[in-house]
Give the backbone structure.
Amino acid sequence: MQIIKTIKELRPVIHEYRLKNKSIGFVPTMGALHPGHLSLIKASREECECTVISIYVNPIQFNDKEDFDSYPRNFNADTQKVRDAGVDILFIPDDKEIYSKESSTFVEVSGHVTNILCGISRPSHFRGVATVVCKLLNIVQPDKAYFGMKDAQQAIVVAKMVNDLNFPVDIRFMPIVREKNGLACSSRNENLTDKERKKAIVLNQTLCHAEKRIIEDEERDAMKVTGEMYEMVSKTKGAEIDYISIVSLPDLKDVKEIKDQVMIAMAVVIGETRLIDNITLNVNEKK
Amino acid sequence: MQIIKTIKELRPVIHEYRLKNKSIGFVPTMGALHPGHLSLIKASREECECTVISIYVNPIQFNDKEDFDSYPRNFNADTQKVRDAGVDILFIPDDKEIYSKESSTFVEVSGHVTNILCGISRPSHFRGVATVVCKLLNIVQPDKAYFGMKDAQQAIVVAKMVNDLNFPVDIRFMPIVREKNGLACSSRNENLTDKERKKAIVLNQTLCHAEKRIIEDEERDAMKVTGEMYEMVSKTKGAEIDYISIVSLPDLKDVKEIKDQVMIAMAVVIGETRLIDNITLNVNEKK
């Protein structure tokens, strides 16, 4: 595995792969790697001849410095994990490499998809995500880039940006990976205490309840389902709901009547840690 | 010469060139081609193995519909010109090809360089330019892209965007091409009447006066020089000044004392047509 820290060193390596017509798969991450990330690497290795992973904690997608500072960082453990996973190139740039002092260009995905769900409580978050992904795509020049559906809105925003700006890359959405107890794998889980980790299961439990109500009981009233979800989470002490929503896919419009493809998405703060989770359902498929 | 109208058709052609490691030069234009454009093609042909020119009148860089509607369009004459000039690929997409109905992602070069000179009278102009250039770079994937210095601020904004977003392309600034009488070549000149065309010479004459005052007379007071320029243009009936400025390069800051690299830039409306022109001087170079 090549470990590369600068754009200048990465460019000729990428150029060689491109000249040989080798397909490049890219997994952009902020490190603190977990089984979710490893599933993205696995998918890339299955579909592409070269897999590049980047580890970079992108400051401009954080809304407050405290959250940025407390974001988990395990560079040594991460390096071992990606080596074991068979990654070809690990790109770990520093801040100076990604944002020069003069840098002031931003990619803005405007419209509904960035103004709902996480876009409400994290105002400039998706601008930061779109900008850094745009930069990384220009640096790595992959054929395919892999995003986990735990951050479903992020994946949708990135896919929209790539489509709107004609990036020559295929954005691949990969399913959420969960711990045995149902908790969605997330780097932020590292910030949970043991007690909080137990409480955090409520997100998945609530989503499973909603799925049961929609699929088995054929409940179609979105307000009724989210109402029950609110009630379940509210019973957990120290859990503060940011949002619980049922939206259409891929346009993320709030739905009243549940039909076709929907996503049930939620953000809950457990202690100091904001967690998100979701499930997607195709209501016409089953039953 | 290949004439290509869709992104889908262009991609495999570009891919072939890239696989063969052939360098691609790109000249993005809005058509109504003149000797300035032809000089960009010439430079590309000298430096690159394949030259791609695009002709697309980009609606989102116009501030009003009237200006967009009256922008000159000569597709048949243009096609003949680029064929004669030895272009390899002419890309002429239509609006549907470039902006889908759902498209809502914009590239915003924020900060001083977009908030001065033409950025004042044309508020969202550079956002439109940055967005379409970003899209075209992703479609054409050139090694070098050529911009004329008549639109110096545009070239500077594009170069900043490319640098800030890490596009793997070299932006080449090419000198202004002028008609015999000094008028800077511009597609908009086509909209001038014969009478207006004579009046339009005042831009170049005024810039030449400024150059003489700075280089020969060693005048270093920017206000004094621009004051004289204002006076010269004001004597031309039907000429309305938008701005006359002396700014530093490449950061476009207003200067009081003329030194080092400066650009003297002006925008003047002649009749219904807004014209821009500039000269750059290295004050320490001569004398």
The longest strand of chain A covers residues 239-248.
